[in-house]
Design a protein that fits this description.
The protein is 45% helix and 13% strand. By secondary structure, the protein is an alpha+beta fold. The protein has a single domain, classed as Jann2411-like fold, CATH 1.10.3300. The strands form three sheets. The chain has a two-stranded antiparallel ribbon with strand order 1-2. Strands 3-4 form a two-stranded antiparallel sheet. It starts with 19 loop residues before the first helix and ends in a 6-residue tail after the last helix.
Length: 204
């Protein structure tokens, strides 16, 4: 029986509706304070790209995702480390190393893209984004481009690390009072604060 992309399970970490560069960095997360790798194998990358496909203009096909290999995974890890360093620089208001910036730009250049028009018969004309690069490299290039848009746009000032106990995720603050990546982290933080006030030590 052949493998289908739907059979790969969940990819990466839970998606929280954050900008795609933040979602990529959040594929390294923590469970009870223990770091976890959400992209440990090529099939994890394939499942994660499948899960974010509706948000991509150049989503890889099912066959391309099922063909994901160790080189694709290494490229994703490299891009994730680069994006994480840049988001940290933005959050801490520091200047990242020039080589990290160049690494991100190299990812965007890896997959040139263009728009093509289709107009068949009396139908409504439609446009689609195309690229001559390999499908997964194209998707990673789009993520790199989204990172540029995030860091050069107004949401840069709203990037935050989650303040939940043991959490290592990031988010873009959409409310001035938001401190956590999710309601779950907010609940754990409130419980920890309650224990600190009443017992002096947080719960495990």
């Amino acid at each position: 029986m052949s493998t289908r992309i739907a059979d790969l399970g969940t990819g990466g970490a839970p998606l929280l509706g954050e900008p795609l560069p933040v979602e990529l960095t959040n594929t390294r997360y923590a469970v009870r304070g223990v770091p976890q790798e959400g992209l440990a194998e090529p099939e994890h990358l394939a499942a994660w790209l499948r899960d974010i496909a509706p948000r991509l203009t150049t989503a890889p096909s099912e066959s391309a995702l099922l063909a994901a290999d160790a080189r694709d995974l290494a490229a994703a890890h490299e891009l994730r480390a680069c994006v994480a360093a840049l988001l940290t620089a933005a959050i801490t208001d520091t200047v990242p190393p020039a080589e990290v910036v160049e690494q991100l730009n190299a990812h965007t250049r890896a997959a040139p893209h263009w728009r093509e028009l289709t107009w068949a018969g009396a139908g409504t004309p439609t446009a689609a984004t195309r690229s001559g690069a390999a499908p997964i490299a194209t998707a990673l290039a789009e993520l790199a481009g989204a990172t540029i848009e995030l860091l050069a746009g107004p949401d840069r000032a709203e990037l935050r690390p989650c303040h939940g106990p043991g959490c290592m995720l990031h988010f873009v603050r959409n409310n001035p009072r938001r401190e956590w990546c999710s309601a779950g982290c907010g609940n754990r933080a409130r419980v920890a604060r309650h224990y600190q006030r009443t017992k002096g030590t947080p719960p495990m």
